[in-house]
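In the lab's daily routine, each protein ends up as an entry in a very long ledger. A line of letters takes care of the sequence, but it says nothing directly about the fold. The fold becomes a row of whole numbers, each drawn from a learned catalogue of backbone shapes. The protein below has been through that process, and both of its lines are reproduced in full:
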Amino acid sequence: MRVIEAAVEARKVQILQQDTWESSAKTYSFPVDSHLTQLTVQVTNYKTQDPIKVNIRNPEGKLMTKDDRLRQLMKTVPTVFVASIDQPMPGREDDSLQWHSVRVSGVSEVDFVPGFATTQLPHNVGSSRQPIEGEYVGTEVHTCISLHTMLVTGRDGQGYNFQRYSKVALIARKARPVVVSCPAKIEVARGATAAITCLVDSEIPFKVNWYQSGHQLTGFPGEHQTYR
């Protein structure tokens, strides 16, 4: 049983993660792609003294019941709603609820693994599982916010909308300290020349400046280059 449980857990994917503090009822829509074999809807009411009411409609707009393979898994706690749907119909389903935290997960062989790097890498090889703390410069400057989730959307091979959230919240980490390696001492005879090699190991982009006797040297190759 533990082997089966571990296998199912490995195929568990996150489809919707939302929180709201609105007092009025709200409807959430989420896509069901053709790779999903099971759905689990979990809703928690923040108003712990009030029972929660959740309605789930299939892509055809029909209110789902136990005749549609809907099983309510937790009935003893009125402020928590947990339901499972086997072999859900592909398309877009709706949840109607209020003042709540809603999580929709599923069982599927299609998921994604976040990977972060300062340069594009094939197949996440050598990437970091956490984003590096700092400001990311693109068309706009964005500060990396800690404790957030990543959302991937698209279409599956049959044309159904596809949506996956990262399984855990992503926490930004500080970049590893920059390591600079160069000779501690170089002796050059008067009138002679020498080549000085400096190796820099850094996770983030950097520039190289050379100094001699406290004065910055200019005119060397790559003076204004940003290394990544």
